[in-house]
Amino acid sequence: MKLTSKIYLGVIFAILYIPLIYLAFYSFNSGKTMIDFEGFSWKHYVDLFKNTRMMVIVINTIVVALLCGLFSAIFGTLGALGIYSLKSNKQKNSFLVGNNILIVSPDVIIGCSFLLMFTFISKYTGLDTIQGFWSVLLSHIAFSIPIVVLMVLPKLYEMPRTMVDAAIDLGATYPQVLSKIVIPYITPGIWAGFFMGLTYSLDDFAVTFFVTGNGFQTLSVEIYSMARQGINLQINALSTVLTIFVVVAVLIYYVINTSKLKREVR
To answer: Each residue of 149-176: pLDDT tens digit?
Structure first.
């Protein structure tokens, strides 16, 4: 059974990582295609970092993702607290169903709805500048909030109710209970929601494709546009840099988490 499990995991990891290795390998190709490897070269990386338009798009994408993670974590946590505080199970279930519908709705439908909304706002308020950075950011926050709600709610239900009741009996005000007990207890869920919002923002294409405008682009839309024009090994170079960044971030998180667990054991 153990051998079968190892073979199964090996096949899964091979399917996941061989395309990434193949992509990274050809990012060092001195040629212009992924058909033949003509020789080792850094030129595609040099061209990438000389491409000021691409650097601006990378910065745009990171800024939107970080702001999306931050605000979706804040509003999603408030939404989870609101659902948790409801007395009626029927009301809780109704809000949860509405929340989950937004998660499972096709991205194309969500993108179209946001496009219509921002077009309406621009037409009747004259705020043409909203279609660009702000439309992308608001859309990303909106579709990330339901995910954060699902990240935070389980932590709220895990929290012993007696902790809150004891604090109130001892004279703590509701703001104090929230800041001293509830928020610290659900912090792991909030962080999970933040990173999920950040990841969904970095990854999103369908919604961004509909709502972007005024010369504002994110990486997903730009890579799609570049890929339609033919193979460009700058895409390989950019993807390799992003993959290395993600790997380093995961390793740092793993080291910090492992060190924290060791301290707690001691």
So the answer is: 988 988 888 888 777 778 777 777 778 8
Q: Which amino acid is at 18?
A: I
Q: What's the rounded Cα separation, in Å, for the pair 251 and 255?
A: 6
Contacts with 104 (C-beta within 8 Å, 6 or more apart), sequence order: none
Residues 174-186: pLDDT tens digits? 788 888 888 888 8
Mind giving me the DSSP string for 66-100?
HHHHHHHHHHHHHHHHHHHH-S-HHHHHHHHHHHH
CB atoms within 10 A of CB 71: 20
Give the global pTM. Answer: 0.81
Q: How far apart are CA 80 and CA 146, in angstroms?
A: 9
Domains defined along the chain, listed by start: 51-230 (1.10.3720.10)
